[in-house]
Every structure is written in structure tokens, then in C-alpha cells.
Amino acid sequence: MSENIPPRRSQGAHRATRGPAGPGGATGTVSPLEPAAPAGPAAQAQIDPRLLVREQGFAGYLQEFKRRVKGGELGSLPVVVGLIVIWIIFQSLNSQFLSPQNLSNLSIDIVATGLISVGIVFVLLLGEIDLSAGAVSGACAALLAVLYVNNGWNPVTAIVVAVVAGAVLGLLHGSFFALIGVPSFVVTLAGLLAWTGLQLLILGPNGTINLPDTGMVARLTSTYFSQVIAAYGLAALATIGFFAVSYVGNSRRRAAGIPTRTMGDILFRTAVLGIVAFGAAFILNKYKGLPLALLIFLAVVVIADFVQRRTRYGRSIFAVGGNIEAARRAGVNVAMIRITVFMISGAMAAVGGVFAASRIASASQATGQSNVLLMAIAAAVIGGTSLFGGRGTAFSALLGMLVIQSIASGMALEGVSNSVQFMVTGAVLLAAVVIDSVSRRSQKASGRA
Length: 449
Prior knowledge:
By secondary structure, the chain is mostly helical. The chain has a domain at 73-226 and 288-445: Orthogonal Bundle (ABC transporter involved in vitamin B12 uptake, BtuC). The chain has helices at residues 41-46, 57-70, 77-93, 100-109, 111-125, 133-150, 155-180, 184-203, 216-222, 228-255, 263-285, 292-310, 312-322, 324-329, 334-360, 372-382, 395-413, 418-445, and strands at residues 18-20, 27-29, 208-210, 224-225, 290-291, 362-364. The strands form three sheets. The chain has a two-stranded antiparallel ribbon with strand order 1-2. A two-stranded antiparallel ribbon has the order 3-6. It is globular, with a radius of gyration of 23 Å. The model is unreliable at 1-48 (pLDDT under 50). Keywords: Cell inner membrane, Cell membrane, Membrane, Sugar transport, Transmembrane, Transmembrane helix, Transport. It is a multi-pass membrane protein.
């Protein structure tokens, strides 16, 4: 007599891990290793009902928007609204705030700290912290200056060595954290102290190394593409690229039998992006043109966002940040993810240090110190990256830096002291964390956290 053996359970049932669900950074149950969903009725049963709103026109999106707000899935909405309010207030106080010159200067001022913040976003996605980023940026800027000025190295080679050095320092932090188990807070706090001392040692007794005003490093933040076509060409490329990606994504969804965006929805989103992009290009062309530093920053943000949301490695980062045990059971190499994320943070800190040195044409004891680290972390959080891990995008660094630098620029025009600027920025940071906490609570209440 044969025994009744129960059917074996598919391993795919154990592979659900937390990952990103869309540009807003909301998380869902996605596995970086999960096989493609089967076609037919089984696939239809797995479709998220929220996707169906795409076929219901404006009414469907309005209903979905209300559901997302009630469920705490706010995405970048609070920071965008806050940025608009900040600009309206400062423009009403001083008509020079939205002038082409001030906005152009603001677009360069956000670059150095913003690049550091991009690396911080990767670490925060794991639910960890990197307190050494400012010190790493200062030490690598000092290394760049010594190699470039004192030793006469080619500037490109010196920059590459400085960035590699930042990645090596991040490798050290990540190894202690991932392999030995030392908390990231302690490891990076030790790094903050150690690399600050290394920075002072590299700079020597003078404490400052001036860079050539006309050299390549200085030109990173002093170069503008004055041709009108440069800024408008970038705006057109961004708009066309967004439409192409959306259209191809729609085609793939349609082929897979998944509800798709309506063409009107795609055109509307493209139009909004186009208005913002061409508006920014118009403003920049009214002054000196497209800054090279801003172009590099935007390219880094787009690449980082692509890595985070469109690659297996990026989905693994979200998985580890959302639920480390589930990610481990799904086959994610947790130690590798942790180590490489801190390497990215170290490398981006070094890149930020290079641009900070370029901005003032020197590397000194003040590079990467003072409030640089705090502003980099604040920018990531204000921009929408969760301190609890598993939610955020590289665009958080861009949005957060725009908020912080807009406050600093507006108050500088009004002659407000730095003390008040710090207090206002602190209040904005607290508001961002409160919104994040309330959002997580709402998601838990609705069963989506």
C-alpha cells in the first residue's frame, strides 16, 4: 500500500523579502531572487489591486492618492511641498531669492555635501549610520591636495587615488561591522576621530594647501556651459529619456499581462518633468549657463537611483534594510551587501571632498568638518530616506540638499545669523523624522509595513 505523501512546498514561498515598490520608496514583498510569476490565471491572482487604478483614469488616481496618504505612503510629497513653501516665503521676503544668479549659485552649493549625502542614503537604506563620512571627505581632499600640488601628480590620477582611498576606508568600516559585528555607530564614530587625525597629519603644520585657480580640480565647480543648447539639451534628454523608460516599461507590463499606465498618465508625468527641466534650463541660461558641477551631481544621482531600484544589487539593499533575516533566507549575501554599501559611502564622501576643495580652491583642516556630516545626514532624511531602513532613493539627497541650502541662502539674503539657520534646519529635520515615524505607524496600521 502506498503512503499518502503531502505535496512538497515550493521554495519560492520562503523567498519574500522587503524591497522597493516604486519611486516614492515605499516597500513591498519582493525578492531579488524570486522567479518570474507564472502566466495565466495564477498570474492574475498575484496582481496588486492598486495597479488597477492606472486603467481608471483621473478618478482612480485620486482614490489611490487618498489611500496612500491614509496608509502613510507619502513618498517625496512632503519635501516637495515644503520646498515650494520655502521658495514662496523667501521670494516674498526678498525678490533676489529666485534670481538666476542666486539659483545658479545654490545649484553649485548643494553639490559637495549632496554627493556625500548620496552615499549616506545607501547606508540609511540598511537602517545603519555612517558618522565618518565628513572626516573621510576631509582626509581624501587632503590626500588629493598633497598628491596634486605638493607631489605634482596629474590631477585625474590624484582624484582617482583619493576616491579609491575613500572606498578603502569604507571597506574597513564595513568589514568591522559585517564580519566582526561591531555596531556601525561605534565603527564609524571611531573612523570620525581617526580620519580627522589623518587629515591633520596629511596637511602638515601649515594646515592648508591651496589649489591652482585655473587647474582642473578648481574648474570642477567654476566651469559653466554657456551655450544655450547645453542646458536645454540636458532638459530635452531628461524628458525624452523619462518618456522612453516609461513607455518601454509599459510595453513590458502589457506583454506580461499586468495593468499598465494609460498613455495620458505617461504624457502628464512627462509634461510635468519637462516643465521643471526646461524651467531650470531657462533660469540657468539667464546667468552663466549649465554648471559642470550640477551636471555631475545629477548624473551621480540618476546612476545611484538606477542601481538602487533597477538592479538586483539595489533590490538586495532594500531587502536587507527591510528584513535582514528574510533577506538571508532568500539567499542574499548580507555581509557582502553591508561591506559594499559602506564602500560606496566612503567613495562618495571622497568625491564630495574633492568638490568641497574645488569650491574654495584649497584643502584645509576645515574641509569635511563642522556641520558637513550633519547636513549630509539631514539632507538624506529630509529628502525622504527612512532612518529605519528599507525606504528611500538617491533623489532624497538632491531634494534634501535643495531644502537645506534654500533655507541657508534665503536667510543669508535676509542677513539672519548662522545660529538661527541651524535652529530652523534642525526644526525641518525633526519634522521630517516625525513624518517618517507617523508614516510607518500608519503603514503598520494598514498592514503595509
